[in-house]
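During the second half of the funding period, the structural biology subgroup turned its attention to how the target accommodates small molecules. The most pressing case was magnesium ion, which had performed well in the primary screen but for which no bound structure existed. We therefore specified the complex as follows and requested a full 3D prediction, including the ligand pose.
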Amino acid sequence: MVRGNMSMTFDEFQELIEKMYSRKDRERGSAATFLWLCEEVGELAAALREGTHEDLEAEFADVLAWLATLANVEGVNLSEALHKKYGAGCPGCGGMVCTCEEKP
Ligand SMILES: [Mg+2]
Ligand SMILES: [Zn+2]
């Protein structure tokens, strides 16, 4: 049970989203879910421009929730995916502190 706990792993969060929304999410499908994710990214942009810190928190949460939803629909475990891609350092240079050249 997550309620009341201030910290959550990605696994717990993705499971929570799965429990709350998976039936609706699978009916809606990836394409429509992706549109919702994009809409939330737009709301995050608006909050960055003119929102309060509370607005920012809410929109970051929405973006992650819709990303987790999309991952659920596609059968991707976010925790595993993050570990695979970033767990051993930067995918570009392999360093735990990135030393990749920034392109101008
Ligand atoms: Mg939102
Ligand atoms: Zn790097």
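Two results from this model are relevant to the next phase. The radius of gyration is 16 Å. Residues 30 and 74 are 7 Å apart (CA to CA).
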